[in-house]
Amino acid sequence: MHPIRRTAAWSRSIPGGRDGRRKLVIALVDRVGSGLWASVSVLYFTYVSELSLAQVGTLAAAAGAIGIAGAPLGGKLADRFPITRILLIVQLLRALASCALLTTDHYALLIAFSAVGSLGDRAASILTKLYATRVAGPDRVRYQAFHRTIANAGWALGGLAAAAALALGTTSAYQWLLAGDALSFVVSALLTLRCGEPASPSRTVTGSKHTAPTTRPANPWRDRTYLAYVATETVLFLDDAMFKVGLPLWIAHASNAPNGLAPLLMVLNNVMVVALQVPLARFGTTTAAARNLLLPLSLAFGLGGLAMALAATGGALTATLLLTAAAAAFTTAEMLHATISWELSVALAPDTAQGAYLGVHGLAQSVQRTFGPLAVTAAIATGPAGWATFGTVIALTCAVQHRVIRARLARTPLSVPPVTVSEH
Q: Chain-centre distance of CA 143, in angstroms?
């Protein structure tokens, strides 16, 4: 098939119509910008802002902790106001936060601006997921697969551009990368203006002569099953800390593999996601199918932990092969969990409170980003037994989640009267 025709056919296969495709373009722009900054942020604060190692760590922890509130806040607002308007405001907020970092080296201000950016990042993530859920409808899992593919491609492009810029080794190079990140948010905001507002079951427009129902929507903070599900999700998101912290440190400190293997395994991760996320999505297109994927997910986590443990016991070649196998296993787990999480987080939430519920679900990833590195470094400090335990605990958590959601999925979906927005 001709390349242009193949591209057109691929485009038509994306759920969500024109707005769905536009959101994928926005995702690409957003992630290219994030790739520019995420890979150099620590270096920027070290060499440009001249912060100490302890100060950089404290800044990252504080910004991450404050950013946790972004997910539930964004989800709550999305149940009350048009999601495209909120996304526009959040993208502009992220742009302002990035630009503000360029204006100062004052430590307190750097923490404040980073925290605002982190808050916006987590809110944007939930709002994007909620928009995709509404625009793609029953094809949300397939749409999520396309979204992750595009997002990972964006991260890779941004990272490559950052690596090229850092070859200059100048302060201006770091500043231009941060400016590029801010520009990506501005472009994303402008593109959001072209996206239509999807139908929302939590917002029913009424006239001035209609009376809005007074029944309150479901509250995720009182939903014990959903909270238990979110608690297990926090553990399953640890694959993120594996690639950012676990693999590089294990390669450097406890294996005989060359240090240059670490970036290559990150490339492997991105290539696998881009190549396999969409094909794997077909195994989780229904709620029951997504729940059944928890069993192979537990196997992938278990094998990944075992391979990490064994990598410390062999020579350079053996360690390299085992670490590559571990990276492949954890990447498979990442892709399976992405499919499972996207479907179950929506299926377990009542239609009329999706924003609030998905906001609470977003806490799992936010909390993991704060405490995940601690769990991974604890495994490293314990040695091979730590990695075996790490993989086993996550595998068992998959089984726990499989059981926790069983009763909920067996019941009729929650039904709550819609919240109305009166327009005079």
A: 15
